[in-house]
Amino acid sequence: xxxxxxSDVAIIGVGAAIPERIxxxxxxSQRVETDDxxxxxxxxxxxxxxxxxxxxxxxxxxxxxxxAIERADIAPAEIDLILTATASPERxxxxxxxxxxxxxxxxxxxxxxxxxxCAGFAYALGHAIAQINSGMATTVMVIGxxxxxxxxxxxxxGTCILFGDxxxxxxxxxxxxxxxxxxxxxLGVDGSKGFDLYGDLTPRNGxxxxxxxxxxxxxxxxxxxxxxxxxxxxxxxxxxxTQDDIDLFVPHQANLRIIESGVERLGFPSERVVITLDKYxxxxxxxxxxxxxxxxxxxxxQPGQRLMMMGLGGGLAWGTVMIRWMGAPA
Length: 330
Ligand code: COA
Fold this sequence. Notes:
This protein is α/β, with parallel strands linked by helices. Helix content is 30%, strand content 25%.
């Protein structure tokens, strides 16, 4: 589905949880047959962050949520809804969102987790915008939080080089943009390719549970390079925008080669593209908000800028959102 609505909704703050522990390519190459040069050349990843053993995905979400509230300068009671995207929940319920709501004191908020793997954050943001535009909510917190290190097969060199842990949170608010303009959301999926990238939560076929991420890397690569261009073009067209209207493009951080081939074909100059995968690897649904946090901290996010954010992966699903950033400068 794709839709553009005239709206003054905008993002007013971002927070992040970036685990301290750095896992380098060199360390991974001590366990599986690979090396730093191969990983950098094929993926663009140099290192990734790993959560402490005593740190849960909810702990990371809470750190990011608290920081987002502080930077957006809002009271927790103003939050109407909390949506957390994750592909690595610690349990089915209570949801991460429920525990975040309790921790931060968002006592008037509804709370639900959403699972659309690497597209999860874009899906959750799309739903946040829909709730606001329908009049149901004024202020929504959207979180992407992952501990992918706990569902990674550290003996599979085709996947263990890619993933990392982290969380990011944003505050989306009605009336934050100075004027109404087209806010565009595309949410898509091709379930026929679902088992090119999957992770089980309960046993299948009576076999012991394999909780690790399994991936047909080449198939996902082909899907991603196609979708990144096609979805961006559709979103621009439906909104009546051109490439020049995008101040920052925040693509899913899976592989630098996927991003580079996409932005080249789209004609986005590289200075308008946010990259963090060299530092954080692929953090699935945390990837987009971690990019926003990085762009904000480094002064690249300025009030009024138009962002195009795109998540893609397991499903195989994708989500692309065009919306303004109205947070205060760092
Ligand atoms: N180190 C060294 N060699 C490796 C390796 C590693 N970590 N992983 C795979 N190889 C080998 C393969 O075994 C293969 O060897 P062979 O030719 O002897 O069989 C060779 O490298 C090429 O493998 P291939 O899978 O074709 O590599 P690639 O260039 O496609 O890169 C990925 C692999 C995983 C980096 C790439 O497919 C990719 O990024 N896919 C998309 C991943 C993605 O986006 N996932 C998440 C979506 S959200």
